[in-house]
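[step 3/7] fold_predict: job queued, chain A
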Amino acid sequence: MLLLIGAFLLLMIIGTPVAVAMAVASLSYLLIYGVAPDIIAAQRMIAGVESFPLIAVPFFILAGNLMNIAGVTGRIYHFALSLVGWMKGGLAQVNIIGSVVFSGMSGTALADAAGIGTIEIKAMKDHGYPVEAAVGVTAASATLGPI
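[step 4/7] structure written:
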């Protein structure tokens, strides 16, 4: 067990990506101690990667970026700005309304944060909102899609 934790921490300290550090530490533990046959280790690794959410996440982000490029997110943002942008704190409300509309189209929080979230965060920063508040409102409003 010391080898597993030590190898992982060492790899993380030298700047190895987390997934690679986990894989190298686990494989080194399995090879040195031989606690499982090789075929079972390979089968478990493949089963861990064979997941629909892991396949869907990059496509949701791609959908958000394509909507950004096509100008759909800009139109949604300007529509929400015309509805509630005039109110006090209206830009945060624009963020929420834009996310509601965009999440209704995409249905996912990831595409919402990747798509219209970039426009909303930039606009809120430009109007003097703290970055933490802009990111917080965007993260909270992006969860409206799955709800």
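[step 5/7] annotate
Residues 90 and 106 are 24 Å apart (CA to CA).
DSSP finds nine helices and no strands in the chain.
exit 0
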